[in-house]
Amino acid sequence: MPLTAMRQFEAVMRLGSMTRAAERLGVTHGAISRNIAALQDRLGFILFEGPRNARRPTAAAEALYLDVGPAFERLAIAMSVHADDDRRLRVSCLSTLAGRWLIPRLAHWPFGDDIELTESYADLDRMLDGADLAIRMLAAGTEPPPGLVAIPFMVNESGPVLAPGLDPLNARRLVSRSHPSAIDDWIAGTGRALGDPTAPRLFDHQQTMIEACLAGLGVCVSQRPLIEPDLASGRLVAPHGFTADGAAFTIFHRAGEPPAETRRFIRWLRDQGGADEQP
User: Fold this and answer.
1) DSSP reduced 3-state for 2
2) What letter would DSSP give residue 217?
3) In angstroms, how far is the first alpha carbon of the chain from the final one?
4) Please, are residues 159 and 192 in contact by the beta-carbon 8 Å criterion?
5) Rounded to an integer, what distance in angstroms lies between the CA atom of residue 224 and that of residue 228?
6) Residues 103, 109, 114, 115: is their CA dihedral positive or negative?
7) Helices (H), the chain
8) Phi/psi of residue 94, each to 5°?
9) Partners of 57 in the beta sheet?
10) pLDDT at 279
11) What is the rounded distance in angstroms from the CA atom of residue 18 to the CA atom of residue 22?
């Protein structure tokens, strides 16, 4: 049984492309392409068709995935359930939230469980990107992916911030690739003007965008949990306050009763995010 090739086929189907599957599995695009070709020879039918840069699954591939996908999912869940009781609790978290909000709080984690933290913005399915828990945003009115339970633990509030002394109307706009329309969305929602629109500066990540804001390079729209210490210290100011948009920072776990250490982390995270105090 060509398990490596089958695993790569499952990842291509689940993620929608060989490129994304290669990135997720830590292999080259060429390796996946060769294994898929070998798998086709073994099975005796074509799995993907079309031009090289826009391959699409055949009907036979879709039918195969209906069996292969759940099988790998069950294997992942079985490994998680039957791992040693003293194993690490694996948590996948949005990278900027991990660096600016969660990691400082983990210094005061009151229990003995070892937390293995990975940073990711990947879309979720029942495999949770290999983690026991995943922390992502959940938009208002959105249902969790099939097979997952969603537990909101902190409301999402956003607003413009900048270093003291800068003019919010004339400061250079700072935006990130993960949310390049943040300032435009805030302007559309509030009807207020903000920043100089002629030459926004684009950053790969919110983390570097916030650092640029702290350095006095301009104004950005940030989620409040990401910059609370900077507001408290006076390194940043929020001239228009913050507005909730109905979205929430949310914990995702697989359906069913999670292990005791997982439930303990969820309770702790809800306490840190003030979930029990929110309306």
Assistant:
1) coil
2) S
3) 53
4) no
5) 6
6) negative
7) 3-15, 18-25, 29-43, 59-81, 95-97, 103-106, 182-190, 206-214, 224-233, 260-273
8) -55, 135
9) 48
10) 46
11) 6
DSSP per position, 181-206: THHHHHHHHH----SEEEEEEEESSH
- C-alpha angle 161-164-169 in degrees, rounded to nearest 5: 60
The set of residues, in sequence order, having a beta carbon less than 8 Å from that of 154 and lying 6+ positions away, is 225, 248, 249, 272, 273, 274, 275, 278
Per-residue pLDDT of the chain (279 residues; tens, 9 = 90+): 578 888 889 888 888 888 888 887 888 888 999 999 999 999 999 999 888 777 889 999 999 988 888 777 777 666 655 555 456 789 999 999 999 999 999 988 888 768 899 888 778 877 787 789 999 999 999 999 888 999 999 999 999 999 999 999 999 999 999 889 999 999 999 999 999 988 899 999 899 999 999 999 999 999 999 999 999 999 999 999 999 989 999 999 988 888 888 999 999 999 999 875 554
Q: Which two tokens stand for residue 226?
A: 């990401």
Question: Cβ distance 65 to 15 under 8 Å?
Answer: no
Coil, strand or helix at 212 = helix
Amino acid at 74: R
Query: Which amino acid is it at 149?
Result: V
The residue count of the chain comes to: 279
Take residue 253 and report the two structure tokens written for it.
């776990």
How high is the pLDDT of residue 119?
87
Q: How far apart are CA 120 and CA 8, in angstroms?
A: 20
Structure tokens at 167: 């003019």
Strand 89-93, strand 115-119: pairing: parallel
